[in-house]
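Re: the 308-residue chain
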Amino acid sequence: MHPNSKKTRIVVIGVGAVGSTTAYTLLLRHGMDELVLIDANKEKAIGDALDMNHGLPFLSKTKVWAGTYEDCREADIIIITAGAAQKEGESRIDLLKRNVSIYESITSEVLKYNKDGILLIASNPVDIMAYFTWKKSGWPAHRVIGSGTLLDSARLRYLIGEKLQIDARSVHAHIVGEHGDSELALWSLANIAGTELQLDDSEKEEIFNNTKNAAYQIIKSKGATYYAIALALDRICTAILRNEAAILNVSTMLTDYHGISDVYLGVPCVIDHNGIREVLPLNINEQEKKLLNSSAQKLKELISSIEL
């Protein structure tokens, strides 16, 4: 990070649906002074940058261009959304191996030009990709961040708010663990202004299942999810660039966290200009601890199976 620099720069690597939507969201919310788009398909990056530049007369002044890895040199935040799509007949493990190889290549290029920025990982499976990026970079874990369960937690809050007819911004609830099938809702801590949620077990189960399966529903309907994750990534960037010390459920390296170590998982963290300032301890019940450990074990087994 360069807290005293005159200009802030964010680089987005990979301008597919998530990357381009994230870049556009950052531009609309004026999160930085300079925005760089990098993609293996150079023409796509050029086209996106040109399209965004044509809208600048309606926005605050931002410099946007299609760049190269050399433009990572002055970046405060480097967002990686690149990744391979699954081929017909390809196993999930093979896909993971391909994506890890892609990330290793990207990380190697970034490291040639940037040693003190923050890497923000968005490609799925995000916890595993963040872990391997951290390992490859050699950077401290607080500067290699996965988007984690921030979006899942937003989905949970939205669904609770809809059920109880309460503004989702006033709902306090967390999804932790893997950004995926083994994630869990921390119902023991969920509340509205400190009051217990007026939901029975069947309602909680329905809300959680709809939260966990939200991405599948959206993908079935339109092929991909990108609006909400773009807003989540923008939220993380804002917390970093404005040194907010905001509490966000991002994916980070855990060390003796309810007995969990050496794995990236989504948990509440304090985010400021240094990245992750601290991981918040959670006073969760025994069942939640068990489920969180199961989530961690699942990811550790996947990591072991694709270790290159």
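The CA atoms of residues 103 and 133 lie 7 Å apart.
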